[in-house]
Amino acid sequence: MRIVAFILASLIMMTVDHRQGHLERVRSVLTVFVYPLQYVADLPVTVINWASESLTTRAGLVKENTRLREEQLILSSKVQKFEILEAENERLREMLKSSEKLGERVLIAELLAVDLQPFRHQIVINKGRRESVYEGQPIVDANGVMGQVVHVGPFSSTVLLLTDPMHAIPVQINRNGLRSVAVGTGQSHVLQLEHLPNNVDIKEGDLVVSSGLGSRFPPGYPVGIVYNISRVPGEPFAKVTILPSAQLEKSREVLLVWPKSISQLPSNFESPLDDPNLLDDLDVSAWQ
Amino acid sequence: MMLNKNTGGWIIFTSLLIAFLLTALPLPIWADDWRPAWVAMVLIYWCMALPERIGIGIAWCLGLLLDVQQGTLLGQNALGLALIAYFVIQIHKRFRLFPLVQQSCLIGFIIIFYLLISSWVSGIMGIPPQTWAYWMPAISSMVLWPWLFVILRDIRRQYNVA
């Protein structure tokens, strides 16, 4: 019976794919066949975008130009301040004998407008192994962390978004450095902070940034804003929901980040974050 | 009689290609839940019309490609499509004689079965489908089946796919 053989083959493949990573190569090869399809499916959207860009009126362009000019002015004035702060920061760090943070290498990738499996939060981007994208690579947009790469093909990759129920990212509250793990809920605009006791110092509107623990995501990128805290007296943990900063459903361009690996840091590097009690959190960023 | 053997393979190929495209095509959010299981439907048609050419093996390979395209576990759709192909090939003679409405009902059940297998796999992974919207493709596939059937049948006769 051939059908039995095929059922067995499927079951074995699923088990291996779920438990180990041996099938990544098979998936990567098959992506070569699938990528043209995804590219073609994306074409109508690209054409519409291109058409609406090239058919904008002169008035519209002038308006946009003015807006961009103003934005540029504001940003460059901010950068001036930032440069002074950076120099000062470097000086202070030197005094403390700890390493300075270096800028990460980034690359812009474009989203393919293709729909994947419903009820999972995944996207496809048009950069792959050719651009040395790797599995587990962090993805950010202009406003914050978006997610991480889970499958890499030669020309394209699949990204798991923060909101996927199987995603977790180590974070800290920007205001007081409180650490936690933000896990996806499966709803498109909500993340949840895990294991925060009821009496924890956290307020609505607090900025949550990536903590860099687990050395998968670079530290200091915004993840979200605390939206709601419900403290139920009988429960051991507070229920804290945050809204992701990144525009997970609107961004068309995303940034691939190559973080500076932890091993490159000097051995005497001591961050106030390195608390031995929280080493357990380290492995959580790897999606189970 | 041997003259017409294996003609029109490109028709089958193109129809499956279009099914894959329709699966990946971005839809507005409200329509996304209603996206019919295109690949499964086209596969069912060819299994019914040409069971000696399109069999379980091809169905399984298509499922694997669908897994890569959809980002599901490798083998999840392959399992579903192989079982569908097996079932349809078993009953293809009766299936051809059914009136369109009856065919549609059967398609609805087949797609529900296909979704059920997929949901079991997701459930074992710990992410079971959470809303009723998961089952909507069965209804939309059922509604669209008569049109798909008529279109593919006419194309098959026109180009003499055998």
Keywords for this entry:
heterodimer, A: 288 residues, alpha+beta, Thrombin, subunit H, 2 domains, six-stranded antiparallel beta barrel, six-stranded antiparallel β-barrel, 3 helices, 12 strands, 30% helix, disordered C terminus, B: 162 residues, mainly alpha, 72% helix, globular
Account of the 3D structure:
The complex is a heterodimer of chains A (288) and B (162). By secondary structure, chain A is α+β, with helices and mostly antiparallel strands. Chain A folds into two domains: 2-54, no CATH class; 91-265, Beta Barrel (Thrombin, subunit H). Helix content of chain A is 30%, strand content 26%. Chain A has three helices and twelve strands, in the order H-H-H-E-E-E-E-E-E-E-E-E-E-E-E. Chain A has helices at 2-19, 24-54, 58-95; strands at residues 105-112, 122-125, 138-140, 145-152, 157-161, 168-173, 179-184, 191-197, 207-210, 222-230, 237-244, 253-258. A six-stranded antiparallel barrel of chain A has the order 1-2-5-4-3-12. The longest helix of chain A is centred in the N-terminal third of the chain and has 38 residues, at 58-95. Chain A is globular and about 70 Å long. Residues 262-288 of chain A have low confidence and may be disordered. With 162 residues, chain B is mainly alpha-helical. Helices cover 72% and strands 0% of the residues of chain B. Chain B contains eight helices and no strands. In chain B, helix 3 packs parallel to helix 5 (76-90) and helix 7 packs across helix 8. The longest helix of chain B is centred in the C-terminal third of the chain and has 26 residues, at 100-125. Chain B is globular. Chain B starts with 8 loop residues before the first helix and ends with a helix. The model of chain B has no long low-confidence stretch (mean pLDDT 88). The interface between A and B is large, with 41 and 42 residues.
